[in-house]
Structure formats: structure tokens, C-alpha cells
Amino acid sequence: MGEHPSPAPAVAACAEAERIEELEPEPEPEEPLPMAPEDHWKVLFDQFDPGNTGYISTGKFRSLLESHGSELDPHKREVLLALADSHSDGHICYQDFVNLMSNKRSNSFRQAILQGNRRLCSKALLEEKGLSLSQRLIRHVAYETLPREIDRKWYYDSYTCCPPPWFMIAITLLEIAFFLYNGVALDQFVLQVTHPHYLKNALVYHPQLRAQAWRYLTYIFMHAGIEHLGLNVVLQLLVGVPLEMVHGAARIGFVYVAGVVAGSLAVSVADMTAPVVGSSGGVYALVSAHLANIVMNWSGMECQFKLLRMAVALICMSMEFGRAVWLRFHPSAYPPCPHPSFVAHLGGVAVGITLGVVVLRNYEQRLQDQSLWWIFVAMYAVFVLFAVFWNVFAYGLLDLRLPPPP
Questions:
Q1: Which residues pair with 91 in a beta bridge?
Q2: Catalytic residue among 280, 290, 339, 341
Q3: Is the torsion defined by CA of 172, 316, 262, 405 positive or negative?
Q4: CA 101 – CA 249 distance, rounded (Å)
Q5: 307-320 burial, b if ≥16 CB within 10 A, otherwise e?
Q6: What pLDDT is stored for residue 12 in this prediction?
Q7: How far apart, in whole angstroms, are the C-alpha atoms of residue 310 and residue 322?
């Protein structure tokens, strides 16, 4: 008898694989992953929307709230009821529902809520009882900065203090640290700016050293004296920290830095022979934006003693500005270079009442969708470009006699 031919390698490999597969135990079924919050609410919503239309009637929506109301925060339940009241067509959109449950806001969702704010505003935050100290602080910040009750309730419900208002606190601590360091180095804390070696610091903006671009920003860490630092620190903490708690570090940091850069550039254009020190450009941008927002929304702002608070803020700003004007025209301690300019304050105010007002007015809304935002951004960009070209060409064309380098 002839020998049977050996199987082909591919057939043998397949047979071996089948035998191994038979010996291996069957894999255990994988446990389902826990549902994300959005998936949880999607499952509930789909129970009332078997046709997967993305909408349910307001009646079914109320049934959903009644059956699962214990899972909701009271404020969210109140907002959802306002959402139900706002839809005259009798249908609720799934995306609006999930936006609220996942702490997302869209323009369409906000408009839907605003239509139902009569019910939402039936019980103000001020009527809430039994709040902890942190909850009372958050409520206080909401009433200090936001003009609409619906925004105050939203902020109170969603604020987690994570991240904390780190930007304004970090800037303030750095300014204090640099001031103390310079005070020890110069052996002078009151009117440090009168010390003959004050301008030798690499952070001060000096017209002869304007090509060193970092000086347009780092001058905020140098202050004329302890009185200058004190007023700026007080305004930064009392106004800047609450604003950052509400609007976030990105927005408030943008307004602050824009005011700082605008301040030094304004000096380089309007007061070309003077140096610049202090954080007044950024501080005045924040404070002027906040005051303008209060004036524009006077009837909606329910902060206590708002007229007195505005008066105190204006008095502090006026005192600090008056000190800067007096110092600018006071005989210099290091002639022929004058004392630092006060024009940076005006640059900060200009930023505050343009870019700053738009930032504070559009709470939790996308600024990119606001036409006024782009107009002011374009104006700011044009000013920066103009100031850059001015610094490159105008100083030579005007044949100014600049003070010697420090």
C-alpha cells in the first residue's frame, strides 16, 4: 500500500488551531462599562421616546421629573420645570435636557430657559435657608457679579471651586514678592521709585529699552512704593478674585493681560519719554469692566450697597490715579528721566470698557459667536499694530531727546 500524502502546511495549521481553540476555555463575558451621566439620562429619555425622534412631550417630560426627581438637585429640577413651561409647542428636545444634566450650556438652551424664567425666578437665592459658609460665599459672589437671577442660580448650582481663582492670587503674590525683594535690595519701601538705582531693574519699562519686548509686560511686578502696591493689591483681590470665580481664569486673565499690554503701549505712544511701573493697567481694566457692567445692568444687580461699593471703588481708583499724576510731574529723583507715567491707567480703562464689558456680559457663553466681541478684538489688534509701528519708526522721525539708559 502507498503512503498517504501529508497534509498541506496551511491545512495542518488550521487543524492545529482548531484543536487549540477546543482546549481553551471560553472567555468570560465582559462586564458592561458603567454608564456616563449622559448615557444614564439618555436611557431614561428613550423610555419616553420609543420612536427615537429626539423630542418628548412636556407631559411625559413632567412624568420623567416626577419619577426621578429625587436624583436631581433642587435647582436643576427648578430649571427643568422652567424649560418645560417655556416650550409652547409642547415638546422638549433631548439635547436641551442633557445639556442641563451634564452642566453644558448652549445659546439655544439659554434662550429656552430665559423664556421660562418667570417660574424660575419665583424663589430667589437670597431666600435659601440653612446654607453653609462656603455656600453663602458662592451666593454672595453670584449677586456681586451677575445681573440675572437665572445666571446666579446656574452659577450657584454648578460652581465647584475647581480650579480655584488661581490667576489673580498668583499675580498678587508675585507682585508682593518682587516688591519685598526690591525693598530689601534698595533698602527702601516708601516711594521706591525715588531711589537712584530703581530704574536699573530689568523688569521696568524704559523708553530707551523699548526693544526689549518683555518689559511691556513685566513692568507690572515693579511698583512705585508701598502705597502704590497696596491700592493695586486691594482692588485686584476685592474685584478680580470674585470675577475670576465666576468667569474663569482664561477670561479674566485675558482682560488683565490685555490691559497691561495696552497700558505700556499707550505710554509708548502718548508719553514717549517716561518709564512705566505697576499693575494699574490690568487692575483698571478689570475694575472699569466690572463698574461698567454694574451701570449697564443697574436694575438687575442686587448686590448690597451697590452705590456705596461703586463710590468706594471710584474713590480708590481716583486716589491711585491722582498719585500717579502727581508723581509724574514731580521733580524727578534721577534727571533727566521723568518719574513713571500715568497713561497706563487710561489704557487699562479703555480695555475694560470695550473687551472687558463683553467678557463680563456674556456669562458662560461663547465669545466667538458675539459680533461685538470680534469688533473690539479687531480694534485692539489695530491699536497694538499701530503702537508697534510707532515704536519702530516714530521715535526716530520725531527726533526726540530720550533720557539715557538706566
A1: 57
A2: 280
A3: negative
A4: 24
A5: eebbeebeebbeeb
A6: 43
A7: 18
**How big is the chain by its Cα radius of gyration, in Å?**
31
Check if 197 is active-site.
no
What residues contact residue 145 under an 8 Å CB cut-off, 6+ apart?
242, 243, 246, 247, 290, 293, 360
In whole angstroms, what separates CA 1 from the centre of its chain?
91
pTM of the model: 0.74
Active site residue 345: yes
How many angstroms separate the CA atoms of 288 and 259, rounded? 11
Element (DSSP H or E) covering residue 192: none
The top-scoring range by mean pLDDT among 4-13, 22-31, 195-204, 330-339 is 195-204
Distance between CA atoms of residues 11 and 359, nearest Å: 71
Cell numbers 491722582 correspond to 322
Q: What does the block give as the cell for 298?
A: 443697574
Q: Give 62's contacts (C-beta < 8 A, 6+ positions apart).
A: 81, 84
Reported confidence tier of residue 272, pLDDT bands at 50, 70, 90: very high
What's residue 123's pLDDT? Answer: 57
Nearest CA among 192, 216, 220, 195 for reference residue 206: 216
